[in-house]
Amino acid sequence: QVQLVESGGGLVQPGGSLRLSCTASGSIFSTNTVGWYRQAPGKPRELVAAITSGGSTNYADSVAGRFTISRDNGQNAIYLQMNKLEPWESAVYYCAAVSIPPRHHQTYEYNYWGQGTHVTVSS
Question: Which end of the chain is least crowded, N or C, by CB within 10 Å?
Fold first, then answer.
């Protein structure tokens, strides 16, 4: 059973940066599409960014130009660099993985999920 573990969340001031990490119990990132999602209280879980096994990336419009998703196969890790964070981006951030590239990046298309890491953007 694959397990994903997120880390790197915390409290950051508006305009600040954080880097989230996602590690897996097995070497799945080289063959899986991995997505970062976030869920704020009372809101649905939404895609933030995704990266395919081939390295193609896509981003939500709201984060394009500020967030960067990357993969380090040697470290078996996926990263999400988040810059210029805003208070409304406070949420639990999750990483998810699936072996079949998702067509729409809907949550049901992903097989594996981490437990999430909390990000709070506040002064």
Answer: N
